[in-house]
Amino acid sequence: MDLETGNYQNLVKKESWRTVLTLAYQSLGVVYGDLSISPLYVYKSTFAEDIEHSETNEEIFGVLSFVFWTLTLIPLLKYVFIVLKADDNGEGGTFALYSLLCRHARVNSLPSCQLEDEDLSTYKKDIISPAPSTFGARLKSTLEKHRVLQRILLVLSLIGACMVIGDGILTPALSVFSAVSGVELAMSREHHKYIEVPVACIILIALFALQHYGTHRVGFLFAPVVITWLLCISVIGLYNILHWNPHIYQALSPYYMYKFLKKTQRGGWMSLGGILLCITGSEAMFADLGHFSQLSIKIAFTTIVYPSLILAYMGQAAYLSRHHYIENDYRIGFYVSVPVVGSQAIITGTFSIIKQCSALGCFPRVKILHTSSKIHGQIYIPEINWILMLLCLAVTIGFRDTKRMGNASGLAVITVMLVTTCLMSIVIVLCWHRSVLMAVGFVLFFGTIEALYFSASLIKFLEGAWVPIALAFVFMIVMCIWHYGTLKKYEYDVQNKVSVDWLLGLGPSLGIVRVRGIGLIHTELVSGIPAIFSHFVATLPAFHQVLIFLCVKSVPIPHVKHEERFLVGHVGPKEYHVYRCIVRYGYRDAHKDDLQFENDLVCRIAEYIRTGRGGLSEENEDSTKQCEGMMVVGTPSTHLDGIKMCVEEGANPEDAGTSELREIETLSPPVIKTRKRVRFVIPESPKIDRDAHKELRELMEAREAGVAYILGHTYVRAKQGSNLVKKIVINFGYDFLRRNCRAPTYALNSVPHASTLEVGMVYHI
Questions:
Q1: Are the C-beta atoms of 469 and 411 separated by less than 8 Å?
Q2: Are 582 and 566 in contact (CB under 8 A)?
Q3: What is the number of other CB atoms lying within 10 angstroms of the CB of residue 535?
Q4: DSSP for 395-453, written as a single string
Q5: Which end of the chain, N or C, is surrounded by fewer C-beta atoms within 10 Å?
Q6: What region holds the K+ potassium transporter integral membrane domain (predicted)?
Q7: d(CA 415, CA 422)
Q8: Nearest to 631 by CA among 577, 553, 548, 570
Q9: Residues 103, 123: Cα–Cα separation, whole Å
């Protein structure tokens, strides 16, 4: 499966209405499930304890007014018409906003960032520096000067990410348990109490077991269910309006909100935590943006979801205005299927946010499976999936109460929305170059509404709202420890790297034995020679005739174009045959981990040798000199007229040329029964000089001899004199995470063991 076939997201905007409508149809099954099932529990949670329904109907009218304006102002006005426009090259979510800010101001926490990364076409897309005299320019300068503000920005983004993960645990539990609780059927209440928890747990297990099929299949599977559900609740709502209270539309006036708060006072304010549940799932519109497109999400919400929800809530209010007790009205066969669908949006968003955090060095490495060959954002993370399932089951078994689950879920949702509001205010000034008054107005308007709901949710701390705070705290500690340890480890690499002058001082022969083959050294450094290599040479003074320092790094953009994937350059003089290759991926790109990557890498170095500095433009010469003469070389798919490499298995040594008859010597002791013959197919134009031809011959012979993978295995410890907190964080926290997470994402995960050499080293940081 080719995971890098085209940049699908960029093509969506140019495609036909048929494609847009297809994406809108899929989004109904993935994005809007949670938002669509909220009528199951909003009124029930609102009238649980804090307020009571009276004969005057002021309470039910006030709640309906709150629901209507909350749905109109937050999902419709804020997200659909404003926040969705702040996409990061088609990607959404809290970390997408952070990535967008990182590109407009130098606030990126990634230590391996380079000036060359800013030359990526998608890095500077639509980026215009603010005028020097504007507030945006002053804000940019302030953020770039003060590390404290940069850390606050990162922590704010991490809080939003942690709350999304917490919501991914709470929403499935709330949705499924609410539905199971509603299916009382004819069984007695005592009987129902003992059976609802096991049934909810079975449904949750089935839900998470479906995730490995991918968003594409799940979307097509769930979309008909959501559409049917929305159609049913809107028809029932319309019937209830016409049959029970045709004048219920009067309750849409904001005046009823005032009357509601005036009459209920503190009880009404506390009940806002239940009303808040009507917008759970709104954040999924932005978090799941990378799976679809802006237009498809807007069409689905404005034409189907929003009108259906308004009719459903109005119908419930009309019925309750004539029946002064709370009862679930939608006793139809969707109590089980719809909650499963409703949980999909936040689970998908959780996978996306964790992948973004991991790519930006803020979450331990996890196994990421791409479930679609066309849409990069459709992923599945097995470890996270099962952790979410276990935590969901724990919440369901521990709470066994929709009221406390609702309090917990509401606080998680409103916190994510508050973080989005804060980051959006900076985006308005720094990225959109709007006036500071517009940013302040945005914060005051939406921030005030969300702060009101936040306070109402926080007051329920002991009644379930402590759960998302506890979950976010745990995930926050994990993220901060991992980010801190990774940063300190990279700083140690930078401080202890060996300069190129050391390599040059060894002379043309490098003072050691050069054996046949290619030595591929994985490193996180983008310049200099890693300490692990000098440690290796000091122990074993020999290495291969061709040496490649390979760095696989992430950049703060969603996708890196194929023609800009590789940065290749010499380390030292050409006759040393030492190269550096930096492979750049966006935080939503699929990392190729097959054996074909090895051949692609050799081909890109051969292409660099063929084109040389002639392939560089004059305007890039200065930056190239700063980076050891590196130049951008695309993937083979973008250089159809470039060098091609042919590998023939089982070539007969007697028919081979001089280079094939030489004895193969590598650092590893592979037993070779069949020979590989490697040929470079060089285009006739332009002609290459003799030196380049000789260098290509050397590379070809080395590739025939085989590739040895030299991997660094580092142990990180706090240096002597460190305080107790640092020792605990590094020696226990970071070490535990490093030992239990996935191995570093090297270009080749399927490295043959017979060709692998691990070099151990202790880092005292």
A1: yes
A2: yes
A3: 16
A4: HHHHH--HHHHHHHHHHHHHHHHHHHHHHHHHHHHHTS---HHHHHHHHHHHHHHHHHH
A5: N
A6: 23-503
A7: 11
A8: 570
A9: 7
Q: Parallel, antiparallel, or unpaired: how do β-strands 578-586 and 566-570 relate? A: antiparallel
Q: What is the pTM of this model?
A: 0.79
Write down the residue that tokens 């049913």 correspond to.
232
The mean-pLDDT minimum among 151-155, 265-269, 322-326, 715-719 falls in 322-326
Q: How many residues does the chain have?
A: 765
- In this structure, what DSSP letter does residue 529 have? B
Report how far residue 413's alpha carbon sits from residue 451's, in angstroms, rounded to the nearest whole number.
Answer: 12
Contacts of 224 (CB under 8 A, 6+ apart): 29
Quick one: which of 683, 704, 546, 519 has its CA closest to 610?
A: 683
- pLDDT for 682 equals 73
**Highest mean pLDDT (candidates 359-363, 648-652, 736-740):** 736-740
Collapsed DSSP state (helix, strand, coil) of residue 475 = helix
In the structure encoding, which two tokens stand for residue 426, read together? 């900076």
Tokens 């709901």: give the residue: 453
CB contact set of 714 (below 8 Å; sequence gap of 6+)? 489, 532, 760, 761, 762, 763
- In three-state secondary structure terms, 695 is helix
Amino acid letter, residue 484? Y
Give 235-256 pLDDT, tens digit per residue.
999 999 999 999 999 999 999 9
The candidate with the shortest Cα–Cα distance to 395, out of 470, 475, 287, 476, is: 470
Q: Does the N-terminal peptide bond of residue 364 adopt cis geometry, omega within 30 degrees of 0?
A: no
CB atoms within 10 A of CB 342: 31
**What's the whole-number mean pLDDT along residues 199-212?**
86
Task: Give me the pLDDT at residue 627, please.
Answer: 43
